[in-house]
Amino acid sequence: PLETKTPDENPPVFDEDIGLYVGQRPKVSIGNLATMENRLLRRPDMGKGWFGKDGLILTTPEPTHKLIIRPLIIGEDPNRHLIYREPRMAGNSTAIINKTDGVKDCQLEIYLGSIHFSHHPLFSREHVLSQFLSKQCEVYHKIDRSRLIEQYREQLKALQYSIQDLKQSQTDPMQASEQLERYRLEVRAKRQQLKQTGATEYQLMQNILKTWRELKQLREDQGYSCTTSQLVIHRFGSDAMIEQSLRDRDIEAELMERRGSRSNYDS
């Protein structure tokens, strides 16, 4: 009943009945309106401050205009969001011959399949967290698809094999020493890239889990959800002994390289 939505549960009062002008309310589907009212009425304050004296949700008049109205923003680069596409004729099928001078007029048609907002002033906290989670997952998938860690490991192995072959070859000691130094510098740089990429991927994974926990907790506190974002986590089995041996092997190889470069400097 409307009495449960009006302030102090008074009988509803409609301004139209007493001759006051009321602007046109925005067009909202009945389902969305009922969902919003139920969420407000389930709050501890029973949606106080959200309903008017007529028992309806307080709204502003329809904000859309038939004419384009854009305020002048001083200091903004007008070409910042401009993407230039060179015009070209698509064929005579889209051209219309002007009867006055015989010039062909072409009609430009733009079709927008969908619009995706990365942020909006009307976003709730759940919308912000959901968008942030989607962006983090997109970055993680991009790093995972690039397979940078595997590439760095393969390049590191190739450099280490080159160092071993150079040590066993019978080349000029001076040239071999210079080549070894270049290989060691490349190995050091590649190992640093491997560590940075692994740390970035691990930190991004932790941030994704943290954002997902915040989003789930917010939905539980609200009692409802406004977004459809879900995070699916796949667990892959691994052998802890094998991983530990690989880490020990990497540490041992790095120590050997440092000792070799130090002895080279001493000599």
From TrEMBL:
It comes from Amphimedon queenslandica (Sponge). This is DUF5523 domain-containing protein. Transmembrane segments: none annotated. One of its GO terms (cellular component) is ciliary transition zone. One of its GO terms (biological process) is non-motile cilium assembly. Residues 3-74 form the DUF5523 domain. It comes from the Eukaryota. Signal peptide: none annotated. PANTHER family: CENTROSOMAL PROTEIN-RELATED, COILED-COIL AND C2 DOMAIN-CONTAINING PROTEIN 2A.
